[in-house]
Design goal:
By secondary structure, the chain is mainly β. Among the domains are: 59-150, Immunoglobulin-like (Sandwich), CATH 2.60.40; 158-259, Cadherins (Immunoglobulin-like); 272-375, Cadherins (Immunoglobulin-like, Sandwich), CATH 2.60.40.60; 382-479, Immunoglobulin-like, CATH 2.60.40.60; 487-603, Immunoglobulin-like, CATH 2.60.40.60. The chain is 11% helix and 31% strand. It is built from 7 helices and 43 strands. Strands 36, 38, 41, 42 and 43 form a 5-stranded mixed beta sheet that branches. Strands 3-9-8-5 form a 4-stranded mixed beta sheet. It is extended and about 170 Å long. The termini are far apart. One of its GO terms (cellular component) is catenin complex.
Length: 796
């Protein structure tokens, strides 16, 4: 507080000094003519005199943040024309005139009425003018001047960020740059030392230092270890006035983190690891884990494991689990307790990445010994081969030996083995096996053409422990024997054109045939084609073997006629090349057909040939004319039916309720609910929507609610009628009047007579309706209509 008072007193003194300088800079104007050597001549030799400016303005200064009791005197304006009699009036205009700056219009003194802040506005431009007080006539031209706000140290330095974050590698050399912090001061840097900043460190020694002029933070200690301490809290101060006493200051925090380098090798926490593995374990199964500790992090802490020595290098392997940084020992090949009971491995752990700068710290790897014990288990039997392939001829007699499988117990006890066939692989039970020696035999003849390969599984189990078993696949190939005769490869059919006896024979075959044999190729081709011995000299056709498993059938003569014989059956013998060979007789059908002059086939049907000869062109035209006449009659009939007048209500088909259908069967009475379908009473048009009328045009369409429509198969007549009534009541398109449907099934002229009661008033009925008078007002209309019969008779 004492320093602030001293500073304020100094500022007041400085302000007074500036004011005295302002007064000293006043200039008085010389309004009367004066000659200073500057002349100009007129047109007639008249000398023109140039008048000198009355006042020359300099800039004024005022101290910012002045808090004295009186307004601050900024300066004084005075003109040489002012004789002190009060006739001259001083006027001030421009920035802040009248609000911040005021002028005494008599004396010309300018005062600042408000506290000024240089950081808010550094200078003000004003206009001054002297005028006649009575006439307001300018006595001198207006001139501008500047009032500058003089800076004081009233703003402390401020850093760009409240907290800085920086990283620097551990074990960095002394003087390594970490980060640069920057502060700013709002005071005037061109005036005094108010904005001259000096940086210093308040917290963070002796680890870090800061450059006083630049604000660069550097390391101050060598070999800082991240594993010992990772984060440092540093406080930096920026002080103005060049760091001298009385200056203002600001601080910021810097969080410095040491980043990791690979300066630590991996180390195993123990020298020997003990593990065990069962001899029943399969390759790939995990045996155990180990971990070398590396205090480094990230890629600097990555460790890889390798087996470098030991008698189990061929049976075990080690991989790296990069998530846990553990070495995983796995079984590479099966182990056998009876063969070897323990193994030893030498495992090395090494860093994946290393820094050459720290290679002097030693090798970045470590080794450990791993001892693995093999555990004995009761193992299942083992077959001498992983699979077996045997052969047997097809059609072999039951009991034929196919082959043998052999298994043994690998344990020291060497338990006896029992063999069996997995019946899931031999559903047809083609084979059986001797349970003691493993010989496989057939139980029925095999057909290679049906199943050329058979795959079964043989089970070997210990007699004393049935749960210990093993399976082996056995593939049995059925060898072929020549037991199938060749046949036509397709249902061949030949065609030959009928011709004259004099026409020469063609060298082209009627048909080319080939054969197919189900047996193997060794017992199949080559095929031999020939005619049976009894028709070797067939007068009509012959067979020529092409010696490429095909043959051609040729005609021996011409003059074939469909009227004499339209079909020939030619037997052909086909023999295969098996040992012994097999043959079969196949029948080839050859038809005699009609052809044109170019030999193109026209027809092979004898009836068609005769029909063509019997019908003339006129007969065919007559038949077509009859068909056309019948079509015209049908079209006319349909047209006449459509011209009939349609009813007012449009039906797609006749309503079934207006028909009487006679059935000759007897109904089942009231209990028979299956004999009649209520759906037949429904209007088929009404099911799909309302029935439109042709004589009226509804104002809007009515869509009946789906819920009011009865189910098609409903047999409840009461519900059906109620639903139909409700639909009619809610239908806005229906006419608001009763309509009379006229039926031709009853009434006058009908055999059934009239069924209506509308004409009962004119008949000679003996019924007495006087009792209707006693039924109340609801029946008054009926009583008047039927009870007044006698009155009508008397009047007549």
């Amino acid at each position: 507080m004492k320093e602030n008072y001293c500073l304020q007193a100094a500022l007041v003194c400085l302000s007074m000094l500036c004011h005295s300088q302002a007064f000293a800079l006043e200039r008085r104007s010389h309004l009367r003519p004066s000659f200073h050597g500057h002349h100009e001549r007129g047109k007639e030799g008249q000398v023109l005199q140039r008048s000198k400016r009355g006042w020359v303005w300099n800039q004024f200064f005022v101290i910012e943040e002045y808090t004295g009791p009186d307004p601050v005197l900024v300066g004084r304006l005075h003109s040489d024309l002012d004789t002190g009699d009060g006739k001259i009036k001083y006027i001030l205009s421009g920035e802040g005139a009248g609000t911040i700056f005021v002028i005494d219009d008599k004396s010309g003194n300018i005062h600042a009425t408000k506290t000024l802040d240089r950081e808010e506005k550094a200078q003000y431009t004003l206009m001054a003018q002297a005028v006649d007080r009575e006439t307001n006539r300018p006595l001198e031209p207006a001139s501008s001047f500047i009032v500058k706000v003089q800076d004081i140290n009233d703003n402390p330095p401020e850093f760009l960020h409240e907290i800085y974050y920086a990283n620097v590698p551990e074990r960095s050399n002394v003087g390594t740059s970490v980060i640069q912090v920057t502060a700013s001061d709002a005071d005037d840097p061109t005036y005094g030392n108010s904005a001259k900043l000096v940086y210093s460190i308040l917290e963070g020694q002796p680890y870090f230092s800061v450059e006083a002029q630049t604000g660069i933070i550097r390391t101050a200690l060598p070999n800082m270890d991240r594993e010992a301490k990772e984060e440092y809290h540093v406080v930096i101060q920026a002080k103005d006035m060049g760091g001298h006493m009385g200056g203002l200051s600001g601080t910021t925090k810097v969080m410095i983190t040491l980043t990791d380098v690979n300066d630590n090798p991996p180390k195993f926490p123990q020298s020997v690891y003990q593990m065990s593995v069962s001899e029943a374990a399969v390759p790939g199964e995990e045996v155990g884990r180990m971990k070398a500790k590396d205090p480094d992090i990230g890629e600097n802490g990555l460790v890889t494991y390798n087996i470098v020595d030991g008698d189990g290098m061929e049976l075990f392997e080690i991989t790296t689990d990069y998530e846990t940084q553990e070495g995983v020992v796995k079984l590479k090949k099966p182990v056998d307790f009876e063969t070897k009971r323990a193994y030893s491995l030498k495992v090395e752990a090494a860093n994946v990445h290393f820094d050459p700068k720290f290679i002097s710290n030693g090798p970045f790897k470590d080794t450990v010994t791993v001892k693995i014990a093999v555990e004995d288990v009761d193992e299942p039997p083992m077959f001498l081969a992983p699979s077996y392939i045997h052969e047997v001829q097809e059609n072999a007699a039951p009991g034929t030996v196919v082959g043998r499988v052999h298994a043994k117990d690998p344990d020291a006890a060497n338990s006896p083995i029992r063999y069996s066939i997995d019946r899931h692989t031999d559903l047809d039970r083609f084979f059986r096996i001797n349970s003691e020696d493993g010989f496989i035999k057939t139980t029925k003849p095999l057909d290679r053409e049906e199943t050329p390969w058979l795959n079964i599984s043989v089970i070997a189990a210990e007699i004393h422990n049935q749960h210990q078993e093993a399976k082996v696949p056995v593939a049995i190939r059925v060898l072929d024997v020549n037991d199938n005769a060749p046949k036509f490869a397709a249902p061949y059919e030949g065609f030959i054109c009928e011709s004259d006896q004099t026409k020469p024979l063609s060298n082209q075959p009627i048909v080319t045939i080939s054969a197919d044999d189900k047996d193997d190729t060794a017992n199949g081709p080559r095929f031999i084609f020939s005619l049976p011995p009894e028709i070797i000299h067939n007068p009509n056709f012959t067979v020529r073997d092409n010696r490429d498993n095909t043959a051609g059938v040729y005609a021996r003569r011409g003059g074939f006629s469909r009227q004499k014989q339209d079909l020939y059956l030619l037997p052909i013998v086909i023999s295969d090349g098996g040992i012994p060979p097999m043959s079969s007789t196949n029948t080839l059908t050859i038809k005699v057909c009609g052809c044109d002059v170019n030999g193109v086939l026209l027809s092979c049907n004898a009836e068609a040939y005769i029909l063509n000869a019997g019908l003339s062109t006129g007969a065919l035209i007559a038949i077509l004319a009859c068909i056309i006449i019948l079509l015209v009659i049908v079209v006319l009939f349909v047209t006449l039916r459509r011209q009939k007048k349609e009813p007012l209500i449009v039906f797609e088909e006749e309503d079934v309720r207006e028909n009487i259908i006679t059935y000759d069967d007897e109904g089942g009475g009231e209990e028979d609910t299956e004999a009649f379908d209520i759906a037949t009473l429904q209007n088929p048009d009404g099911i799909n929507g309302f029935i439109p009328r042709k004589d009226i045009k509804p104002e809007y369409q009515y869509m009946p609610r789906p819920g009011l429509r009865p189910a098609p198969n409903s047999v409840d007549v009461d519900d059906f009628i109620s639903t139909r009534i409700q639909e009619a009541d809610n239908d806005p398109t229906a006419p608001p009047y009763d309509s009379i449907q006229i039926y031709g099934y009853e009434g006058r002229g009908s055999v059934a007579g009239s069924l209506s009661s509308l004409e009962s008033a004119t008949t000679d009925s003996d019924l007495d309706y006087d009792y209707l008078q006693n039924w109340g007002p609801r029946f008054k209309k009926l009583a008047d209509l039927y009870g007044s019969k006698d009155t009508f008779d008397d009047d007549s």
